[in-house]
């Protein structure tokens, strides 16, 4: 049975091993254990060896990573509740570092002048870090490092309004989020590193209170040392407009002079997007009744759409929350054994994530393009094409020989209807 486990995250200074914070499970590791985890890593470094991961006798896993020779992050998975793969732990470490850079900037983390002050400053990152530890809502971007998208039934008028609004706001970086997922974005926004798109979408989810805000951000890859302004406007509850810009315009000017002019005519279109909810697919996409959930990744654009069937489930079928958990676990299973996760470089180039790939796949003389898994709860099928990866969740009653046909038809139904 596929199960997810708990993760505890530790942050220390790389040079002296001073603990900066701990997040995750409520029961914190004893200081002696934290010191041992730091000490064994330092000992390996002194012997010319880099300790990156290990497995405990009781089934837990530990992953270390040092960022900019300044901060060491350690992810520890618990022995109870199931195993956590190295891919998940490495992604968590990368997400945490990117959260810290996004909020504080790289200079504050690389040049540590006062450890106690840094500890206080890092508290402003906790809410965002915790969001990633909890799975970043109902999206998959924290794991796939692809932007979670919602495919609107009428994207053209929204795209035109966004382009015009962004230009009027003296920017080239803008996006529209519905339920935390990207509906439309400007060309320059899509040129941001996929991890940055995921980060900014998650950051907006942490905003509360006023309908608009002006928040300084650092882009971990694009601008790690120079802050930009993130202007966020809540068009409707659940629909957020975001713009990255410089000193101008002011938040008040953009809110009073630009928002109503460009977006009031599209209120009904926005409400149509909101009604999609967690489905993330327009009504023109007809999914087979046996599809309990899916994750579709566009490998060329590093965008993804995921959905699980909601409503009343027949007896014996997993609930929606469990379906989403199974999809995440199957993605890790397939990515580390068959397909291999892809990394996106600073220039947008794709490269294989071989360090995260298990030895299991090294014996193959070819690149697998399909895989399936049968569990006590469900059946899962993975399909890879040059442009897409599809992960499909189906009930146990579906015949195994029908999985491939169902996956192929599902991929064709989505891509032909939406162009995704």
TrEMBL record:
<feature type="domain" description="FUZ/MON1/HPS1 second Longin">
    <location>
        <begin position="172"/>
        <end position="263"/>
    </location>
</feature>
<dbReference type="InterPro" id="IPR043972">
    <property type="entry name" value="FUZ/MON1/HPS1_longin_1"/>
</dbReference>
<dbReference type="Pfam" id="PF19037">
    <property type="entry name" value="Fuz_longin_2"/>
</dbReference>
<keyword id="KW-0206">Cytoskeleton</keyword>
<comment type="similarity">
    <text>Belongs to the fuzzy family.</text>
</comment>
<protein>
    <recommendedName>
        <fullName>Fuzzy planar cell polarity protein</fullName>
    </recommendedName>
</protein>
<keyword id="KW-0963">Cytoplasm</keyword>
<dbReference type="GO" id="GO:1905515">
    <property type="term" value="P:non-motile cilium assembly"/>
</dbReference>
<dbReference type="InterPro" id="IPR026069">
    <property type="entry name" value="Fuzzy"/>
</dbReference>
<feature type="domain" description="FUZ/MON1/HPS1 first Longin">
    <location>
        <begin position="8"/>
        <end position="130"/>
    </location>
</feature>
<dbReference type="GO" id="GO:0005856">
    <property type="term" value="C:cytoskeleton"/>
</dbReference>
<feature type="domain" description="FUZ/MON1/HPS1 third Longin">
    <location>
        <begin position="291"/>
        <end position="416"/>
    </location>
</feature>
<dbReference type="Pfam" id="PF19038">
    <property type="entry name" value="Fuz_longin_3"/>
</dbReference>
<dbReference type="InterPro" id="IPR043970">
    <property type="entry name" value="FUZ/MON1/HPS1_longin_3"/>
</dbReference>
<dbReference type="InterPro" id="IPR043971">
    <property type="entry name" value="FUZ/MON1/HPS1_longin_2"/>
</dbReference>
<dbReference type="GO" id="GO:0016192">
    <property type="term" value="P:vesicle-mediated transport"/>
</dbReference>
<dbReference type="Pfam" id="PF19036">
    <property type="entry name" value="Fuz_longin_1"/>
</dbReference>
């Amino acid at each position: 049975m596929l199960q997810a486990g708990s993760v505890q995250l530790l942050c220390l200074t790389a040079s002296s091993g001073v603990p900066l914070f701990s997040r995750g499970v409520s029961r914190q590791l004893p200081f002696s254990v934290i010191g041992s985890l730091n000490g064994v890593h330092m000992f390996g470094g002194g012997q010319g060896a880099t300790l990156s991961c290990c497995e405990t006798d009781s089934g837990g896993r530990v992953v270390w990573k040092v960022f900019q020779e300044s901060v060491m992050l350690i992810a520890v998975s618990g022995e109870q509740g199931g195993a956590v793969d190295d891919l998940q732990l490495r992604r968590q470490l990368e997400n945490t570092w990117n959260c810290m850079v996004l909020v504080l900037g790289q200079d504050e983390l690389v040049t540590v002048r006062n450890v106690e002050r840094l500890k206080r400053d890092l508290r402003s990152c906790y809410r965002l870090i915790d969001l990633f530890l909890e799975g970043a809502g109902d999206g998959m971007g924290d794991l796939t490092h692809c932007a979670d998208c919602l495919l609107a039934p009428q994207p053209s008028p929204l795209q035109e309004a966004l382009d015009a609004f962004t230009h009027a706001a003296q920017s080239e970086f803008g996006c529209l989020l519905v339920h935390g997922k990207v509906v439309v974005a400007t060309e320059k926004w899509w040129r941001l590193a996929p991890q940055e798109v995921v980060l900014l979408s998650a950051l907006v989810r942490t905003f509360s209170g006023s309908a608009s805000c002006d928040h300084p951000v650092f882009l971990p890859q694009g601008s790690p040392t120079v802050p930009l302004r993130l202007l966020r406007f809540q068009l409707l509850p659940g629909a957020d407009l975001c713009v990255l810009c410089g000193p101008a315009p002011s938040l008040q000017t953009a809110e009073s002079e630009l928002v109503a002019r460009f977006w009031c005519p599209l209120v009904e279109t926005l409400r149509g997007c909101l009604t999609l909810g967690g489905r993330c697919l327009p009504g023109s996409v007809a999914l087979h009744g046996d599809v309990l959930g899916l994750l579709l990744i566009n490998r060329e654009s590093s965008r993804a759409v995921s959905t699980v069937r909601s409503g009343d489930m027949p007896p014996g079928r997993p609930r929606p929350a469990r379906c989403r958990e199974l999809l995440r676990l199957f993605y890790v299973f397939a990515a580390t054994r068959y397909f291999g996760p892809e990394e996106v470089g600073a220039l947008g180039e794709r490269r294989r994530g071989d360090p995260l790939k298990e030895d299991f796949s090294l014996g193959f003389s070819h690149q697998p393009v399909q895989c399936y898994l049968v569990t006590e709860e469900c059946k899962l099928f993975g399909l890879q094409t040059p442009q897409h990866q599809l992960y499909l969740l189906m009930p146990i009653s579906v015949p195994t020989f029908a999985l491939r046909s169902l996956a192929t038809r599902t991929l064709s139904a989505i891509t032909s209807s939406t162009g995704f």
